[in-house]
Amino acid sequence: MTSTSTSKNKNIGTKIFEKLTELGVIKLLENGKTNSKSETSNFMPLSLDKIYSDESVTVIALSHYYKQNGDLMADPDMEIAIHKNGKAEALTFQQDNFGIFQQVYDIFPSPKTVKPDLKKQLNDFLNQWLTNCIEQRHSFDSTIH
Fold first, then answer.
1. Distance from CA of residue 96 to its chain's centroid?
2. Cα 94 to Cα 34: distance, rounded to the nearest angstrom
3. DSSP alpha helices (H): ranges in the chain?
4. What are phi and psi of 116, to 5 degrees?
5. What 3-state class would DSSP assign to 120?
6. Which of 37, 77, 87, 98 has the fewest CB atoms within 10 Å, measured from its CB?
């Protein structure tokens, strides 16, 4: 089996986790940091903020922002759950210039009601966005810059 076919068979949550690792997110969190920014020439900065953590999951926000009329605009801003089992998943997506806010898990009508189609769509987007960030040479690993 080639590495390409192996990659195709990986679960999307594993792919996202691996890309977060490549960006230096996992190492940064393991070192106790709660926020950071990656800046590369010709591209918007990439910001990371730790939102929540317990023994099984850490939730982060990963964002590109730009200024419009003095206001910071998310382009996009995503909340991501990083599970201790080596998988990660999109929780929310926000795109300010289009007035979009989406979340995969609803609290009502019952706790943690999942929207499976949206979950797939946001995980696919996150996977591609992380690929783009890697190609743009973003990194939260200070040893790389």
1. 17
2. 21
3. 3-9, 12-22, 25-30, 116-135
4. -60, -40
5. helix
6. 98
Cα separation, 35 vs 25, in Å, equals: 10
Residue type, 122: L
**Coil, strand or helix: which one is 141?**
coil
Count of all residues that appear for the chain in the document: 145
Write the DSSP symbol of residue 97. Answer: G
The answer, as to whether pTM is greater than 0.90, is: no
Average pLDDT over residues 110-117: 86
Cα gap 26→141, rounded to integer Å = 9
pLDDT tens digit sequence for 30-85: 999 999 999 998 999 999 999 999 999 999 999 999 989 999 899 999 999 999 99
- If one counts every other C-beta atom within 10 angstroms of the C-beta of residue 117, the result is 9
CB 71 within 8 A of CB 51: no
Give me the residues paired with residue 93 across strands: 78, 102
SS3 content of the chain, % helix, strand, coil (to 5): 30, 35, 30
